[in-house]
Structures are given as structure tokens and as C-alpha cells.
């Protein structure tokens, strides 16, 4: 059945301008997309709209004028929007996905990635909507790829932990929901730093400056348009078959290092790539060694200073030297703080299995295979 809705449009003819109210047909299948202003959400919204779905996009800071502004932390607003729109499907793309922001604002990130996801799942269950929760390969530690859906996650950083907790919150609150884990994304960006792939463009374009690029961690850069198609096909399949639920992995099938991605970008824009330097494993290990040595040396010096200060304080009968003490504390802490991101990032980047010849329980298909997907599980 097709619904109808009144639409206002402005008609221009030479010499006059009229406001016209028309009844328009609306597709009967309704999808609500959270994070529709983001890198993936924009593609998901477009994909559903172009395939005869009535798509309703929500954003937050960038929502107006195209999308509805809904703060997912406001559970009352979420309740109203879902009950007013009555979607058949919800694709939940909104998240805090920048690992450094998650580390710096853990409570805010957890509220969005975990609590808001659980609440959305609960609301979806109340009206019988199918929820697709977008998750990440960061739920794995990357030590033993490729990963299958049944492998036990073990996130290294806080971002990965919140995405995993988000998965659990969704599946606990909505038994029929789906979790779709995907790797690093690229696509049309509003700013280069929207994607870990396009952000490399700066290093590529300034060819007068040599740039060291990681050439040992294998990644599977995945285009947002393909993930959007996967979401739509998953939703359409589910409308025919209620047994479609649970956890799915999907990624592009090209395996590349950052160096190879940067060369591909240079190629695509007809730019030189001779200034890009591949950094291989042994060079990376050497780099880490020098880095850690420097940090240790710095830490050791700071520690000696601190000890010296402590001795001085003991000598002064517990009185702090106001000039020395705060400085020594800062020096003693900063190497530790500085080294933690390295511990997180130095491991192999997690990646998902992209093989097509997997057991039937896994669900993969090629980036280019968008016409006739095999969604059989
Ligand atoms: N990017 C990647 O490489 C990658 C890789 C694997 C998995 N993922 C996952 O894919 C999903 C989409 O990622 P993305 O790269 O598209 O993210 P993104 O570009 O950073 O977009 C984040 C979205 O969340 C919205 N948002 C933030 N706070 C909100 C709030 N309080 N209420 C409502 N909406 C809020 C933002 O809206 P405004 O901008 O309007 O504020 C934006 O639309 C995420 O779940 C992410 O974890 C991403």
C-alpha cells in the first residue's frame, strides 16, 4: 500500500511565483536513519531513498535544514520520533567514532555509543521495527585475523569497547536486531578528516615534503556506498524472512596498507607519489624502539628529578618547593600518558574476513556485487 502526504512546492513562472500544495505518493516502506549527516549515514539515506523507501534522516549538529534534529541522548525525543514515524527499519549509524575523542570524553562517548543504542533498540522492539546497528572491526584486537562472526571480540581501545558494549545493549534489548561490523570507511567527504582514508590526501598532495607511510598493517578500505547497499539489502531480505538477525561482517575485498592507499590516491589524482616512503615492519620496530627508548630516557630523567625533589622535601621537613614540585610531577606523568596511544595503535589493525568462500554462517560479498547479493546465511 502506498501512503499519501501533502507537499508544499514553489512554482516559478516568468512574472509570478506561487506556493502550491500537492498530494504526493509515499513509498510504503519506511526507514529511519540515525547519523544521516555523517559519512556513512549520508550514503545510507541516499541508498534507501533511491530505492523506493520513505527515508527519514536524523542528525544532530549538522541536521538542519535537510534532516530532523534529534539528540539520541534525549530518550523522550527518540520515543516521539519513532512513534510518530513508525519505521519498519532503523539503521543506526550515529556514534562517536573518533578514538581520541572517546578516550578524552569516555562518559559522553559511552552514553551515545552504548546507552543511546540500547534505548533505540528498546524503542524499535516496541513497534516491531528491524534495527541495524553499525559496529566496527575495532571490537577485535587484530592479533588473529581474519575474523568470523562467532569469534570472541577483544577490543584494544575504548572506542572498540564502547562499540562492543553497544552491540550487547542492542541485542539484549532487541532479540531481532542485526549488528553489522565493518572496517575503515571512505567515500564522499565534507572534510578530508571525515575518513581515515581521505585524511591522507594532505600527505599526498604536498609532494615537496617526504612522508613516511605505514606499509605493514593490512586494512580493507570499504566504500560507504557499498555498506549502504548492504544495509538496504539486509533490510529488504529481513522483510521477507524474519530469521535474518544477529551479527554480520562485511568489508570491501581489497587488502591495502596505508602506503598503498596513498599511492592509489596519488594515481587517481594524477599526482606524484615518489615522496611517499613505505615504512615496513623492521623499520617500524626500529622506530618504536627509538621512540620508547627516548620516552624511557625522558621518564628516567624525570623520575631522577622527582626523587631529587623528594629527597629535598624530606630534607626540608615535608615542605614543597613551589617551583620545583609541579614541574616534576608533569614531567613524570607525561611520558606515561604519551606512550599509551602507542600501545593501542602499535598492534595490527583489526580487520574482517572478506573471503566469499566462507561457511554458510558468514555473510560476505564483494564490493562490486550489488545487483544480486547472496544473503543466504
Ligand atoms: N568511519 C569509519 O571508518 C568507520 C569504520 C567502522 C565502523 N564505523 C561505524 O559506522 C558508523 C558511522 O560512522 P561515520 O564515520 O559515518 O560517523 P560520523 O561521520 O562521525 O557521523 C557521526 C554521526 O553521529 C551523529 N551524532 C553525534 N552525536 C549525536 C547525538 N547526540 N544525537 C544524534 N546524533 C548524533 C552525527 O550528527 P551531527 O554531525 O549532525 O552532529 C553524525 O551524523 C558509526 O557507528 C561508526 O562507529 C565507522
Notes on the protein architecture:
GO terms for molecular function: enzyme binding; methionine adenosyltransferase regulator activity. Residues 30-284 form the RmlD-like substrate binding domain. Pfam families: RmlD_sub_bind. Belongs to the dTDP-4-dehydrorhamnose reductase family. MAT2B subfamily. With 377 residues, this protein is of the alpha/beta class. Helix content is 42%, strand content 18%. It contains ten helices and 13 strands. The strands form four sheets. The chain has a seven-stranded parallel beta sheet with strand order 5-4-3-6-7-8-12, with helices on both faces. A two-stranded antiparallel sheet has the order 1-2. It has a two-stranded parallel ribbon with strand order 9-11. 36% of the residues are buried. The model is unreliable at 312-377 (pLDDT under 50). NADP nicotinamide-adenine-dinucleotide phosphate binds next to helix 1 and strand 7. Residues 34-35, 37-41, 59-63, 70-73, 93-95, 97, 112, 134, 136, 163, 182-185, 194, 196 line the site of NADP nicotinamide-adenine-dinucleotide phosphate (NAP).
Amino acid at each position: 500500500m502506498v501512503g499519501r502526504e501533502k507537499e508544499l512546492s514553489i512554482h516559478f513562472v516568468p512574472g509570478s511565483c506561487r506556493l502550491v500544495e500537492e498530494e504526493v505518493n509515499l513509498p510504503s516502506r519506511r526507514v529511519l536513519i540515525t547519523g544521516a549527516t555523517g559519512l556513512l549515514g549520508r550514503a545510507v539515506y541516499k541508498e534507501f531513498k533511491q530505492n523506493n523507501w520513505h527515508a527519514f534522516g536524523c542528525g544532530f549538529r549538522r541536521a538542519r535544514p535537510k534532516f530532523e534534529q534529534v539528540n539520541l541522548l534525549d530518550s523522550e525525543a527518540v520515543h516521539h520520533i519513532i512513534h510518530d514515524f513508525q519505521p519498519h527499519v532503523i539503521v543506526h549509524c550515529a556514534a562517536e567514532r573518533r578514538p581520541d575523542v572517546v578516550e578524552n570524553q569516555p562518559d559522553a562517548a559511552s552514553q551515545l555509543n552504548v546507552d543511546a543504542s540500547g534505548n533505540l533498540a528498546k524503542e524499535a522492539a516496541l513497534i516491531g521495527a528491524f534495527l541495524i546497528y553499525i559496529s566496527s572491526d575495532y571490537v577485535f584486537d587484530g592479533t588473529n585475523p581474519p575474523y568470523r562472526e562467532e569469534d570472541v571480540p577483544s577490543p584494544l581501545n575504548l572506542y572498540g569497547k564502547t562499540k562492543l558494549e553497544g552491540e550487547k545493549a542492542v541485542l539484549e534489548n532487541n532479540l531481532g536486531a542485526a549488528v553489522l561490523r565493518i572496517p575503515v570507511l571512505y567515500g564522499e567527504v565534507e572534510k578530508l578528516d571525515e575518513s581515515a582514508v581521505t585524511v591522507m590526501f594532505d600527505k599526498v598532495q604536498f609532494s615537496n615534503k617526504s612522508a613516511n607511510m605505514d606499509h605493514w598493517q593490512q586494512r580493507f578500505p570499504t566504500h560507504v556506498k557499498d555498506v549502504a547497499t548492504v544495509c538496504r539489502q539486509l533490510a529488504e531480505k529481513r522483510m521477507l524472512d524474519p530469521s535474518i538477525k544477529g551479527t554480520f561482517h562485511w568489508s570491501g575485498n581489497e587488502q591495502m596498507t596505508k602506503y598503498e592507499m596513498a599511492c592509489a590516491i596519488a594515481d587517481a589524482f594524477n599526482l606524484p607519489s615518489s615522496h611517499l616512503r613505505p615504512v615496513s615492519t623492521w623499520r617500524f620496530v626500529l622506530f618504536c624502539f627509538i621512540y620508547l627508548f627516548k620516552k624511557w630516557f625522558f621518564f628516567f630523567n624525570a623520575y631522577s628529578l622527582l626523587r631529587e625533589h623528594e629527597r629535598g622535601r624530606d630534607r626540608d621537613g615535608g615542605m614543597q618547593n613551589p617551583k620545583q614540585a609541579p614541574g616534576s610531577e608533569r614531567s613524570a606523568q607525561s611520558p606515561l600518558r604519551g606512550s599509551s596511544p602507542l600501545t593501542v595503535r602499535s598492534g595490527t589493525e583489526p580487520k574482517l574476513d572478506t573471503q566469499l568462500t566462507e561457511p554458510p554462517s558468514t555473510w560476505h560479498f564483494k564490493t562490486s556485487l550489488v545487483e544480486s547479493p547472496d544473503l543466504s546465511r
